[in-house]
Write a structure and sequence with these properties.
Layout (H helix, E strand, L loop, with lengths): L1 H20 L9 H21 L3 H18 L5 H28 L4 H28 L7 H30 L9 H10 L6 H19 L2 H14 L5 H11 L3 H6 L2 H13 L4 H34 L1
Helix pairs in contact: 2-4, 3-4, 3-5, 4-5, 4-12, 5-6, 6-8, 6-13, 7-8, 9-13, 12-13
GO cellular component, one term: membrane
GO biological process, one term: phospholipid biosynthetic process
Keywords: Membrane, Transferase, Transmembrane, Transmembrane helix
């Protein structure tokens, strides 16, 4: 009997370890994700691991649910919108599960990272199109597509930079193995090694990702100088004092990467749907989230400049 109790205690003690192992880092995780999406994602990941479903299959499935949610936001009936909200939440749970599954099963790939990064873009493209159609059907001018497209472009920039800064933070605190940080020079070399005749799909996907990575790098010149200097000096084994100091200075910026991504925008999207004022979603994206993006980029550049000068002087 005592052996059974000890065994049960050991199993209970192991559960938090499994949960922690499924996360990228507590530094970059948002509270809503820790409390809600990650536990659901872990359950989905555990089931998928048992039946042999791959992370990429989970990601692709999330795209279908996210796009379906966007389609349902076209309709003005609140009960249909609520179904769309539930589908979008489930899509995000799947999006959480694919990364957790990849980390738990050590089944990571660049294609998986690319699919995961673009999945949200598919969801929100469907959402923006649905909301624009909903507003024009309600009598709004076709000019509503202008803020709809501007908000969509804003979302791409916000998502790209938030994801990039998270991976930079993970690179400094966990090294290359604990991060998904890519650079355009390495991607270009990989792209050049492929042939269109033999690797058409992989080369097509990598071409899009290469442009995405170049966008991230163009918007972070000081950060690029810092990364180049760090990699030249230390390779992947960063000194402990640099890791500690960078983490302390950079960690406060992680909350801004969370604000401009999924949870905050979706909470307000649901609010606008409940009060049937969906035009506010575009205004919120452009007038609220964009200034946060600008502040986030400026602060990250300031941090990067500080550590670059510290290393070079």
């Amino acid at each position: 009997m005592e052996e059974i109790l000890v065994d049960n205690k050991n199993k209970e003690a192991a559960k938090p370890d499994i949960f922690e192992a499924s996360l990228k880092s507590n530094d970059t995780e948002e509270r809503i994700d820790i409390w809600f999406y990650r536990p659901i994602g872990l359950r989905i990941a555990t089931i998928c691991a048992k039946v042999g479903i791959t992370p990429n299959a989970v990601t692709i499935t999330s795209i279908f649910f996210g796009v379906a949610a966007g389609v349902l936001f076209y309709y003005p009936a609140l009960w249909i919108n609520v179904i769309g909200m539930l589908l979008l939440m489930f899509a995000n749970s799947l999006d959480s599960a694919d990364g957790q599954l990849a980390r738990l099963t050590n089944n990571k790939s660049r294609l998986g990272r690319i699919l995961d990064g673009f999945a949200g873009d598919f969801w929100f493209a469907a959402i923006h199109i649905a909301l624009c159609l909903r507003l024009t059907d309600a009598g709004w001018s076709a000019w509503v597509w202008l803020p709809g497209v501007l908000a969509g472009v804003s979302h791409v920039f916000q998502s790209a930079m938030a994801d990039y800064y998270r991976n930079v933070h993970l690179y400094f605190i966990k090294g290359k193995a604990g991060s998904e940080l890519d650079n355009s020079a390495e991607l270009q070399r990989e792209f050049d090694r492929m042939t269109w005749s033999q690797h058409f799909f992989d080369k097509f996907v990598l071409n899009g990702y290469l442009g995405y990575t170049r966008l991230q790098e163009r918007l972070s010149p000081n950060l690029q100088r810092l990364l180049k200097e760090v990699k030249a000096r230390f390779k992947d084994d960063l000194p402990a004092n640099l890791v500690t100091e960078f983490r302390a200075m950079n960690k406060p910026l992680m909350k801004y990467t969370n604000i401009v991504q999924f949870n905050t925008r979706v909470i307000f999207l649901f609010l606008w749907l409940f009060i049937d004022q969906v035009w506010l979603y575009f205004a919120f994206d452009i007038l609220v989230l964009n200034p946060i993006l600008i502040y986030m980029c400026r602060r990250q550049e300031k941090v990067s400049k500080h550590f670059y000068h510290q290393l070079t002087t």
